[in-house]
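User: These chains co-purify. Model them together.
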Amino acid sequence: TQLLEQSPQFLSIQEGENLTVYCNSSSVFSSLQWYRQEPGEGPVLLVTVVTGGEVKKLKRLTFQFGDARKDSSLHITAAQPGDTGLYLCAARKNTGNQFYFGTGTSLTVIP
Amino acid sequence: NAGVTQTPKFQVLKTGQSMTLQCAQDMNHEYMSWYRQDPGMGLRLIHYSVGAGITDQGEVPNGYNVSRSTTEDFPLRLLSAAPSQTSVYFCASSYFRGTEAFFGQGTRLTVV
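Assistant: Joint model of the two components:
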């Protein structure tokens, strides 16, 4: 099992629908990041959340860090085809230098 | 700025062969890491380095070696390639652990 589990693994929705992607762990993190990856490219950072309960908005994307800093969610409002991609959460534990990535959610938005 | 540069972009190896994947960054980042990406597994950490001369193992280090003789370069060596090492490999760098990671474009490796 991996440190960060994401759900769902695959998601296919129609343009205009809303969706939520989850990132869960049994470990506590000092910070958590969300990345988006397009085919043939490396992941690109979307946001970093640091404080338990923190909510950040990036246009139609809303990111939330769990109160206990063990989980996070990404909510997309009115999805567009340009949102298609692989969404990855990433975090480091409070101790140690390792930076872990989640299992990923592959999103397809159909026009 | 070039950012993070990985070479080669594609590689086919025969079982038992060795090779080195190159990674260079020009952002003066201290933290560099190698990941492999397999379907349904996200990115798994192979090795990482917190600065020149310092390396450590990640989640899946077996079969791979790294070195960090300079701040800029962080090569990944496959000692004796196996089909299980067929994957897409990404190198990343960041100013420090937990800050924004910048990725190369990846190396798609096939071991036959």
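The CA atoms of residues 48 and 56 of chain B lie 6 Å apart.
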